[in-house]
Design brief:
DUF3152 domain-containing protein, six-stranded mixed sheet, 24% helix, 4 helices, alpha/beta, DUF3152, Collagenase (Catalytic Domain)
Length: 179
């Protein structure tokens, strides 16, 4: 998919809500999803993918720690924002993203739409797993997690390793709690 260098420069909150899975336990975390106006991506599809990743048993809610509810308005703990490369650069400043990287900035997980659409060399052709990693990593920042290092050559990379840049000798891993 071809993602333009820039779009409208403002966000629209994706309408609708998504409840946590039935029977889920843990602290309820309300979040929103935003998409930069003018991007050639379906906001509802992106929001559904974010919700699926956040509530996956391998995700941040693992073991009933948290459960995630997408809301269309009102207060939220964080926002996941799909952004053009130019908007990503602006929203992530002073971090230099070079139109390539994503970031966690305050209460916003800024997802570079070009990366979301094309993936990263570290994941090869596995775009689905890369998208899971990208969402999990940037939301990890919103939940207070910093970057991690590779625990050893050939071992699974923690989700907070900057896997978009390199695997640093580790194996790709999109999940906070892969087991």
């Amino acid at each position: 998919m071809r993602v333009p260098e820039s779009a409208a420069g403002s966000y629209a909150r994706v309408p609708g809500t998504a409840a946590p899975p039935a029977g889920a336990r843990g602290t309820l975390v309300r979040y929103g999803v935003e998409v930069e106006r003018g991007l050639p991506l379906d906001g509802a599809e992106f929001a559904a993918e974010v919700h699926r990743v956040l509530n996956d048993p391998r995700g941040w809610g693992h073991g009933g720690v948290m459960r995630f509810e997408r809301v269309a308005g009102g207060p939220v703990r964080f926002r996941v924002a799909l952004s053009s490369p130019a908007m990503t650069d602006r929203m992530c400043a002073p971090l230099v993203t070079g139109g390539e990287l994503s970031c966690g900035h305050g209460d916003r997980s800024v997802i570079n739409a070009r990366r979301y659409g094309e993936g990263a060399a570290s994941y090869g052709a596995d775009l689905a797993s890369y998208r899971e990693y990208l969402i999990g990593h940037e939301v990890g920042h919103a939940l207070g997690h910093g970057h991690a290092g590779c625990p050893g050559r050939g071992r699974r990379a923690p989700v907070m390793v900057q896997q978009s840049k390199s695997l640093y000798g580790c194996r790709a891993n999109p999940w906070p709690h892969p087991d």
